[in-house]
Amino acid sequence: MHTHAHSRPPQDNRASGPGIVPTRVPHGRVREARELLSRDGAVILTGHENTSDALVVAAAQVIGDRLRELYPHRVRTSREGTPVHLHADSFDIIVDIGGVPHRRRHPDEDHVLVQCTRPAPHGGDSFALDAYAFVDGLASTDPALHAFLTGSDVDLYGAWADLRGLPASPRIGRHVEYTRTGRRIVRRTDGAVPIHRDPDIQHIRTQLARLTDAVHKIEPSLPRFPLDEGDILVLDNYRCWHGRDGHTGERSVRILTARSSDAG
To answer: For the residues 102-107, what does the mean pLDDT come to?
Structure first.
């Protein structure tokens, strides 16, 4: 796989505030795509074929020799879809296949790739947020919520405890943590609940609700961007949250999550 050299610097396509407008880059310009992903936390690759194989190729291009694990493709089709709120992809599912455990999702997926296979006839534009900037801003605008996100343990997937394949042991963590190599993780999941019999259970519930309110409140102000057929949105899943507007008609995407050597 070749990396195409170029002399011009990456285009500065950053939005004001925590909103992100990913720069669109032809898929052959690998170096530029990597630089933009590192700088902005997101990039859109154009020109790939509208196939599931293209997601694997794109992951190899942007992550390179740091790529360690890919998880199974997921196809998401929505008809007359309601909005999808800001979130970071992560889950914790292990299945048994022929007596051998196989991990199908990982709590510390640090990259997510979303390929638009069928744009909606109307609506369905995407939006993304730099969660690092969002959390840092809370330190002055909402110190109590900032303290909760950085200092309180929750059960990250407890709301989904009845799903088959989800481990029985609670997955305990904080919304903001650091990997052993120093990478900051800012999580956003609807699965988070207080730890069983946490003495601060009411406080945790209140802060989880306040986080949801804060996220929903900021969404209307974020810049929107479309994904055309075949486009691949690549996100630093530790840094960026993403969502999309509601739409009419049918819309489909393929999703691939991955872990690099920098994860966990």
So the answer is: 94
